[in-house]
Structures are given as C-alpha cells and as structure tokens.
Specification:
Helices cover 38% and strands 27% of the residues. Strand 4 and strand 5 form a beta hairpin.
C-alpha cells in the first residue's frame, strides 16, 4: 500500500531524513519509534505531502506520489492525525467530524460513517453538541482520530497519539486504537511510548537521527537488548 524508497527530506538547508526506506502493507499496523528529534514527525509530514521529498520516491498502491500536494494524497485515502491533535476548539464535536468528511465520496456516506465513529467512541456521541475545546485531552485525541476516520481512509497516520495524556488515559487510548485496527484499517503510528506501541503493531522501525537503524517484527524488536534498555525501560 505505502512504500518509501530512499527518501531524503528536510526543511531549508536542514536535512531531517536520510535515505529512508519503509513499507506498510494493507491491513498492517506498523510503528516508527525513536527519541525526540529523530525525524518521526517529519516522516509523517512527508507521507501526507506537507514536506517535499528531495530524493527518493513515495508510492501509494504502486503509483508515485512524490511531489504531489497534500490534498491529492488525502483524496487517495491517507488520513493524518497530527501531533497535538489540531482539532477546531470553537466548533462542536459533530462539526469537527463533518470537517473530516469533506471529500465528495465521504459526504455521500456521512450518516453511515459518523454512526461508525460514534460506535467506536461513544463519549463523542454523548458530547456531539459540545465545543471541542472543552473536552479532556483524551477525548480530544479520540475526536482527532474520529475526524480522520470520517474520510474513510485506506491508511491512517497517527503522530504521537499518547503525547500529554495521563498514564491511565494512555492505556485506554491504545485499547481504542486496537479497536480501530480490528475494524480493518491500516495504521502507521509514530510513538514514544515504545512498550505500549510494540504490543499493538505487527512490525516496527527504529528511527534515529533521521535514519532507519533497525526494523522487524514488533515482538523481535521488543526482545533486542539495546531496544529494551534504551526505549522500553527494561
């Protein structure tokens, strides 16, 4: 579904990613883990068309999308849940969800899709007329994910979904992401909470200083000594 082949990218004269190769197959959940400043968020922005590729290629369903604009990538079925949630605080929960379903194909299925989102996140149904800015941090993250689901995406990009949440809410959030995955969605998730995310995904990539250091099945990575000591806390 998604292939990055030797991608180098950055901002101005600064290079954040070096020769990154990564794949996500349909139906998979894949994680990118690593320390702050490793280039994880830049990677997500490259995939969603917000940061241009300098060299290499980005392919979706076998077609090259390198150099395409963000709205073209969204229309092809990529939904990005950015770091920090980026909801519209003055709009209601329901209005935020409508913003996520703006594509013509999504608008035709609005009632069905919003019903599915409310089934996954019942608290959003309870608060549908409440301003999004008054929700708790965890509820806002649910809304950000629900808004992404409104476009009926082929692939969901989750950038640091647990950032800033209380530990009990982190556990709940990962359980909700697991439910989203069980719905059949393909997921690429960037996350610093390595212990939790490796229990959720099929495969993972370790990104350090803009380069892929190691990749493999999540269970195998969790057992590697340097990963356990540096990232899992064991």
């Amino acid at each position: 579904m998604l292939e990055l082949q030797g991608v180098t990218a950055g901002y101005g004269e600064f290079t954040a990613l070096w020769d990154v190769t990564l794949t996500v197959n349909a139906g998979e959940a894949v994680a990118v883990v690593g320390p702050n400043g490793a280039g994880k968020t830049t990677l997500m922005r490259v995939i969603s068309g917000l940061v241009p590729i300098r060299t290499g290629d980005l392919r979706l369903d076998g077609r090259s999308f390198a150099g395409r604009r963000a709205h073209e990538i969204v229309a092809h079925g990529i939904a990005h849940v950015p770091e920090g949630r980026r909801i519209f605080p003055r709009l209601t929960v329901e209005e935020n969800l409508k913003m996520g379903g703006f594509l013509p194909a999504s608008r035709r299925h609005y009632a069905e899709t919003v019903g599915r989102v409310y089934d996954l996140f019942p608290v959003l149904a309870e608060r549908r007329r409440q301003r999004a800015g008054t929700l708790s941090g965890g509820e806002q993250q649910m809304l950000a994910i629900g808004r992404a689901l409104m476009s009926k995406p082929k692939l969901i990009l989750l950038d640091e979904p647990s950032l800033g949440l209380a530990p009990v809410m982190v556990l709940r959030l990962f359980e909700l992401i697991r439910r989203v995955r069980q719905e059949g969605y393909t997921i690429l998730i960037v996350e610093q909470n390595v212990r939790q995310v490796l229990s959720l995904v099929d495969r993972a990539y370790l990104l350090e200083v803009g380069r892929i250091k190691v990749e493999g099945r999540s269970a195998d990575l969790a057992e590697q000594d340097f990963v356990r000591k540096a990232y899992v806390g064991i």
